[in-house]
Amino acid sequence: MTTWEEVVRMASELPEVTESTSYRTPALKVAGKTFGRLRTEAEGGLMLVCGLDEKAALLGSGDPAFFTTPHYDGYGSILVDLERADAAQLRELVEDAWLLKAPPKVRKLRDGAT
């Protein structure tokens, strides 16, 4: 099982990530933009920003670690059950979410460009 603290450590390896809040819940931001949020709603889960195609693929995979709710219909985000998520795949999803929200000059920091 992956904890919120472990997700924060994964994300903190990326440039300019801050742990903050969004909708009064713990969140991850880059350049002030939320890319992940720990949900306290009844279904729980970690919300990560993603493309609609990636969301469809994750939901279509049948992996019980990934789900959505009607609130997120048509929106580029996936909900992740941290108790079921594979840590390596979660790390990749965190980085992908970061890439979607990080401005170009911050993305260059990750790639070592100046």
Automatic annotation (TrEMBL):
<dbReference type="InterPro" id="IPR058532">
    <property type="entry name" value="YjbR/MT2646/Rv2570-like"/>
</dbReference>
<dbReference type="Pfam" id="PF04237">
    <property type="entry name" value="YjbR"/>
</dbReference>
<dbReference type="GO" id="GO:0003677">
    <property type="term" value="F:DNA binding"/>
</dbReference>
<protein>
    <submittedName>
        <fullName>MmcQ/YjbR family DNA-binding protein</fullName>
    </submittedName>
</protein>
<keyword id="KW-0238">DNA-binding</keyword>
<dbReference type="InterPro" id="IPR038056">
    <property type="entry name" value="YjbR-like_sf"/>
</dbReference>
